[in-house]
Write a structure and sequence with these properties.
The complex is a heterodimer. Chain A is an all-alpha fold. In chain A, 74% of the residues lie in helices and 0% in strands. A seven-stranded mixed β-sheet of chain B has the order 6-7-8-3-9-10-11, with helices on both faces. A four-stranded antiparallel β-sheet of chain B has the order 2-1-4-5, with helices on one face. Classes of the chains: A mainly alpha, B alpha/beta.
Amino acid sequence: MTADATSAEARDTHPGGLAAVLRATEIDTRLLGMVGALALIWIGFHLYGAIVNGFGTFLTPRNLWNLSVQAASIGIMATGMVLVIVTRNIDLSVGSVLGVCAMAMAIMQVWVLPEMLGLGHPAIWVIAVLTGLATGTMIGAFHGYLIAYLQIPAFIVTLGGLLVWRGAAFFMARGETIAPVDSTFALLGGGPYGAIGAAGSWIVGLLACAAVVLLLLSARKQRRRFQFPLRPVWAEILLAVIGCAAIIGFVLTVNAYPWPIGIVRQFAERTGVAIPEGGLFISHGFAIPVLILMAVGIAMTVLITRTRFGRYVFAIGGNPEAAELAGINTRWVTLKIFALMGFLCGLSAAVASARLNSATNSLGSLDELYVIASAVIGGASLAGGIGTIYGAILGALVMQSLYSGMVLIGFDAAAQQIVVGTVLVVAVWIDQVYRRRTV
Amino acid sequence: MSTSSAATPLVEMRDISIAFGGVKAVDRASLELYPGEVVGLLGHNGAGKSTLIKILSGAYARDAGQIFIDGQEARIDNPRDAKAYGIETIYQTLALADNVDAASNLFLGRELLTAWGTLDDAAMESQARQVMGRLNPNFRRFKDPVKSLSGGQRQSVAIARAIHFNARILIMDEPTAALGPAETAQVGELIKQLKREGIGIFLISHDIHDVFDLADRVTVMKNGKVVGSARTSDVSKDDVLGMIILGKCPPGAIPGPGAAS
């Protein structure tokens, strides 16, 4: 104990630039590594485009906006996969469950509800979404029941689910593509109308900045109340500045992406606004699916760090036997985890089918692999007990950035698969090396 | 210290049996514990003592037999039931979730919540500091996952968890196995203190020296059966060794079904 204390003091007295900043701010170095990797990917693709093709297209508001929308569907599911993986389970069925949920929602809003309520009724999208969420939750709960109470390994249950639900998605509409979806429902997928505009984005951004500052202040107050060590004031201010700068940077980026000319013309005709000389600049702002992903990320983070359920998830992942002996109903917790995973598949299905403006029986194919890869790249350990929500979302962003980047610079599909597969393996290897050195 | 058999036992396990795949791990074993009494449960590795005690703590479901708490028949099907009767267990494996910190382990399954229903980590850590201060005053590493703690520190976390929730019956399975001499002495002091508070304690060990001086009575098991029970004041260490090794019941001990004739 005393040896530890003195060595810590020794380290404190010789702070080297970055190391001192890291210690004072208590920033997770893993997070920093992931952000660094993401920056490297972005800058790399941009420079490659600029040098080889003569123009860099990656770091443009348009590409980054699209990237954020494309990452939303996988990101939403990846947050749930973290819980599944933390408890030493796996869910291979998420892509197929997404397909079934999308089908259920499409059938509801295209075939069933217009008959009952009339086409374009304002309640259609709400009922459709609830149908999808309920379908996903029930399928997930059923998987969870088989895994927790009948003790069938999760790998097998969800491998079966992968096939069963894909087949079910086909049967629901006999393989037909169902389109178009309800016009309000389509907003969930993004697009010019499915974004909240410049003013809305500023409101969201400023609220987020206020939340960052409030969180830092309340954490400081809490630490002082229990007389735990405080961060230096400059470190708190640095954290607040970095957090707010990142948020405002994001707002500026999404606001810098204007509506395409065609949409602007359509809009102008409909509302009777005259288009001035040089065109009308209307910002996209945050896309609705991105806002959904952010809300899911925050809610899931609160769930796993601040609630009993989250504590039990980690305890079960760390030592299932100990969790059971501590009186935790591990089976019930496992069932709830899979039900939650199913719920998130339903939500993700809403985003994905709204973005395509249709549901097909193949929607979500291979998503399970991207979702698992996102969670794992984000630091979730398949050995159980370790994982974070922000990591999974960043993981989804890394995966999507690789794909988009390779499309932009003109890699063909085969090369894309090779690169993504390699990155997955290398990322996990680096993570293992890092863990061995720090723990 | 221990009360006479006229009083109602705190715990009575009667004719308990359990088999794993045809092997009778525990065979018609009976056991009693009185308030403020320390009973040493002795026997070789594989004698069935840990298994018997895991039935009391709800980790295993028995095949036959009854359990009485305060003279009333008790239904113990899982660890939650046992805890509801005030039975707390320190397992040989410690049963800690390695990836979470000491306070989280201490309150695992019994978390303190804020008015909003969220975890009150600050309150839990504050209470953890108090109870750990009593057991291991040098302990400072409240934020680290218990995986990174030393054997003795992990042991103190497990003990703290058992005594923090007003246990009436405490089961300690090889509680000093991972400890050095100073810490072992500390656990001995703790046991005496808890005994004065009227808590009944089962001390399980394969080593007679660990328990003989602390226990009021010993019960010896061999091959899943109870060889016999004796007051430590009525028998010598050698007598008890004879019970453990040969299954031979000395005069002064009450023979059980497993006693060699």
